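Narrative summary of target 7.
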Amino acid sequence: MYVDCFGGPDKALDSFSDIQKAINFAMTSFLTTGGIRGGSEQIDKFQPRSFNMGLSKKAFEASGGFGNIHPGEDPDLSIRLWNLGFETKLFSSAFVYHKRRIDWNKFSIQVTKFGKARPILNSWYPKYSKITYFFPSAFIIGLFVSLLLLIFNQDLFFKMYLVYFVLIFIVASFQNISLKIGYLSLIAVWKQFFGYGKGFIISYMKVILLKQKPQEAFPELFF
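Modeled conformation, tokenized:
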């Protein structure tokens, strides 16, 4: 099947550090936002990621390639290609061993930028805004609400989060055959949701509610 823009998922090599394997789990698992980010065509229309993307000469010349936003350059390109009449396709076996951020601080900075970029893209392309993009923000707000409810002896909401994190630990430990990576995956998932959710909320308030120009609100995302 011919397609002008395509991509695939990412995997972790055995030689990756335990933190990198945990981050890979957080960024690709069906229990987190793996499918939402572009690892599945069942959740949303596939948006190839720049670390694993093929683009035809025709599509490149028509679109001009990547824009000047980063991160967010890959969904921006995908949407512009759709608007030009091109199709994107996921090839699930065309994976790459994606060596992600090597420490927690760099990972937190990266996912926070991801969160900031999404409302900007939503403001540019409201047709492609999805409720799923709000999930990380809703997740962290819900967690803090569940902690507040504990003060009033209401623990059902908190128990739901507890079950979720136990499930993360079990699945990550099983997939990596390592209890240590299972534990580190808990940290990675928390940092992923908190960083992205925080960035999304800040960007949503500035770009969507206050109508600030993205380049002025977040100059660090443009070049």
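The first helix runs from residue 18 to 28.
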